[in-house]
Structures are given as C-alpha cells and as structure tokens.
C-alpha cells in the first residue's frame, strides 16, 4: 500500500484493499459513510493520474464495518442510519492541495466532517472483555486459548477456564463431552459450523486425530459431518454464519457467527441477529487491536514442553575485545544465524534474563517436541561453527564462538506476560531453571540434558542419538555411551557457577553428542 503521508491512504489503495469499485467508493462518500478526500498529487513513483484523493487510514476499518452489516442483511439505509445517524450526507467538497504531496500540517479532524466520525474516538477504548455475547479464540490445534463466560454457558456448557490442561480444552473433545446433553440437531449444527470455519486446517487425516483419545466412531462421525458440508457453506465460513443457541428458559436465540483468522488461530464472536452493537462492530474492525488484546489475555495452560537455554561462551571477554558497534554486529549476526533453526523446529521465543537464548518446544498432536528440541540444539551447534569461522576471518583472531546449551523436559504452566508494548511467552517452574543451570555447566558448545528428558524418548528415537558421559577413570577421559552421572560428580570447585550448580548436584545428567544414522540393512 503506497502511503504518501502518515495516517493517510489513497483512493486507489482503498479500492484495491477493500475490493470495492470507484462508484461504490463515491456512493459511500455521498452517504456520509466516508469523508470527502483531500486532493493532491499521487505518491512518488505512481505514474497514473496527475491528482489523487487522500483519506484518513481508518476509513479501511469503516469499510469493514459496512461489510459486516451488509453480510447481516442490512440495507444501505439501515447502515447509514446506524453509522452516520441523522446528520445526513457530507456536503463538504473535495479540497485540492497545491504544489507537491499533502503537507504534514493537514488537519484530518477538520477535513473529516459531515456524517463521518473517526473510529478511534470510540472503539479503541473498547476491549474484548466488553463483548457481551459468546466469544472465544481457538489455536491451530483447535484448543481454546481465550473465552468469555457467555461462550462457556451457551456454546460449551462447561467452565472451560477451569480446565488447566490445554488438551482438555480441544473444542471437539468439549463438543463430544456435551453431545449427550443437547439436542442432536443443535450438536450437529455447532460441530458443522466449526468444521466449516476451520476447513483450511482439516482433512481426513486430521479428522482421525483431532484430539488425543478420539475414538474411531467419533472420527467417522466428524468425517460424515465434514463431507456433508456444501461448497457454499465452506466458502462462506470466512465471514458470517447463522447459528441458533438454546437458552436457559428453553427458548432459542439466533446469532451470526463472525470469525477472524490470525496466524495464532481463529477468533469466534456470536453477534445477536436481532440487534446491532455499533461499538462492538468498531472493535472487530480493528484486527491488530483484537489479536493483541487476545494474546494479552490468553489463559495459562499446563503443558508438556522442552526448554532450550543457550549462552554465548565468554561473552563478557568478547565484548571487551570488540568495539561496541562490532559486538552488536556479532550478536545480531548470531541471531540471524540461529533463527531459521528455531523456526524450522517449531520453537517459541522466550525472554532470557541475560544475553542468551531461551526457546520453548510445546507438545502438540503430530509433533515430537522432544526430538524437535534435541535436533534444534544439534543444528545450532553446527551453524555456530560456520558462523565462528566467518568471524575468525573477519577479525583475524583465534577466538572460537560457542553456544553452550542446556535442555530439559517437564510439565509447566505456559502463558503470556504483557507490558504496554509487547507480549512475551513464558513458562514457570523448575524445568526452565534446570535448563539454565545446564547451559552454565556446558563448555565449548556442549549440549547437556537430564535423564528425565532422555527417558521420555521412545526406544527408536533414543537409538537415534549418541549420548553419555566422559569417564575420568578411562584413558583419555573416554566417552561411555548411554550413561548418566550426577551433576555433583562432574562438577569442579573451580567452576564459576559452582554454588548455583551445587543446588541441583543430585540431578542425573548426560551430554548429547550427535545424531546416529543406522543402516536399514
């Protein structure tokens, strides 16, 4: 989108983004739904018309409102009445700007008059907690990440927020648990609605493992419902679908289900069919605000996870040897070097208390979180070797760069901590602390882990790695495969982290050396 002035978009941008015609745009201006444009020269590089109209950027949100209301069967007269009121059309004529691009001194609030009111004046003060109808966020594993009480009561019939195990919040598991207590037609309609909305993430293979413990009969029933969906239902599922929910007094209320799909999942909002909440429509037209609000309010979940903590060896000495600009260049280059590995192995970034790395690998269906973590650690070590060689060439020094890594597995509460400007994923518990201690113990790029993690591997996966302990009693400090040792038996009093590591001295640990490839013959 070509932006000629901060906070403004061109008429061409609006037509392309909103998918409307120029005639429709002109009609919306005539009805007062949009302000009249400020006329000026086109953005730099645009070789089309000599002049073009500029609008406040939030008109895109207003167009989303109009689209929502149209989908609910509202006429243009209804929409104008709801969004503009009785003030009539905007009679202000377009105002040209002479000599160059629109100047920064343009007063948008003065230009925006008539029936149009800026959305930011009202909707940005509203949050998802103000939604008074059923609403919830479902992640990519079909698990509820956020939900309000109305959705608990009307849609799921249970206190979802009281379920700390995230797998127990799988929507299809919840639907089957409620199946016997509701009318079969309602249950089928509700299940079909979610299968239609989530169709892009579902196929026959996925249906057989939508949640752990799904029975063959349940899987076949879901497949029958999914295959019965019409093309129109699936195509329309990205917008607004009707659903009738049973109320406590045995009456029913009809809702339009509005869905918003993000990278993090799909947000469902049930809008009553017999009323229009203008403030809520304003909120739903601001995608970025909605998802940020949802992420801040995600429910903490008890999950099985692996934690990887890695520290750059001798980082204090290295920073002393380099100019500040060079040190930051090195650190930024290191991050660029390792980032693809974390992404490839489905890791989630966590905040490290120092200048190291901390990532989480979450247990989820169809993904082996433990092998993901181990393979990522081994891949990081190889990538850092290459990165170190590059920097030796740049600096002409003898320093080798190492990431010392500790990994651990456990079950912890996983959630988000938010500030005014960011959302951070974090887990609480000893799993993280132990991984951090092991990274302090490691030297020269070693990867250390716990007996607990190794024992969680299947026999086949375990045979795919070389792990063990260097024995001081063997010549050359020989390596003994498939063994463990207490950390206290390996710890030297000269270790700068001796006191911290002594606290977990009884912990059985092992060093992961490499992957092992076995011949099939």
Shape estimate: globular
CATH C-level label of the largest domain: Alpha Beta
Which topology of the largest domain does CATH recognise? Alpha-Beta Plaits
Q: Percent of residues in helical segments?
A: 25-40%
Q: Please state the average pLDDT score.
A: 79
CATH structural architecture of the largest domain: 2-Layer Sandwich
Rounded radius of gyration (Å): 29 Å
Name of the CATH superfamily of the largest domain: Nucleotide cyclase, GGDEF domain
Biggest sheet architecture: 10 strands, mixed
How many distinct folded domains? 3
Strands, total number: 19
Please identify the structural class as seen in this structure: alpha+beta
Query: How far apart, in Å, are the first and last alpha carbons?
Result: 58 Å
Please indicate the percent range of residues in DSSP E strands (runs of 2 or more): 15-25%
Question: How many helices in DSSP terms?
Answer: 21
List unreliable stretches of 5+ residues. Answer: 86-115, 119-124
